[in-house]
Amino acid sequence: MEELNDQQHEDIAAYLTNRMPPDQRPVFEAEVLQNKALQDELALQRRIRRGVHLANNRRDVADMYARVKQELDNEEAEAKTGVVKRPNWYVPMAWVAAALIFIVAGLFLRPAIDRLFNLSGSEIGQHHRPPHRTGQDTLSSDTSSSVSPTDTIHMPITDPSNLDMDRQLADTYFKAIPKSSPPPIVLPNEEVDAGALTDSEAVGRDSIAVLQAISLLQKQRTTRAIPVLQQTVLEGYPGHWRNTAEWYLALGYLRNHQRPQALAVLDRVAHIEGHPYQVEAKKLVKALKR
């Protein structure tokens, strides 16, 4: 078998990490189609990169599990020394830990394994990234011009009954386990660039951030959860987890006595077709505007 030279190895690395200039990519791909040794090495490097990426994801899941387990141990220790006061919307952390591991592990393992087994026989993928968020993926101009969803200034509400109602509504709609992410849609003969791992990594970070924020909300640490959700809404990858962050951010605002900010986010969610929490947002907006 023909051995590759140093330049060809450098070209493979540049191609897989998207550092190769756009005008050189077609030339390199044409060379790969004509060089069996180059094809084999490119396929091998793709498998290695997928394996490393999968190992990193497993380590992240293990770290999260360790943190949740430590929290469970701390709660058990507190229970032995005294009574632990639990909020109304508290559920056993064991269920949250199990759901967290299941959601995040499934998010990463399924596409990685599917792509690994479908690698043989696939042609050279062309790198594709979705366009920057537009339309419904961006915060509407009406919302940002009136009340920004990232505005953490406490808006005074003079009627104490409103405060009680906001907290009760937040308690009613809060779920410690978010809706699951739908499985990815794989088009027939879809070409996949093995080097384009940035998108899945971004989705993974968003899912971890949202689950951590939900855990904070569950423990009544609202002021700590809000900034995490705000960052995910503004900087997160368009899709399920950023949409989920919007919903829980609205609930956090309600618990933090920030009804105007909550309504700004809820109005947006209620008008996005296909949003996982569109139905709930419509009901909550209606209840708040009675």
From TrEMBL:
Bias (Low complexity) ranges: 137-152
Keyword entries, A-Z: Membrane, Transmembrane, Transmembrane helix
Region (Disordered): 123-161
Parts of the chain that traverse the membrane: 89-109
Protein name (Swiss-Prot/TrEMBL): Tetratricopeptide repeat protein
Upper classification of the organism: Bacteria, Pseudomonadati, Bacteroidota, Cytophagia, Cytophagales
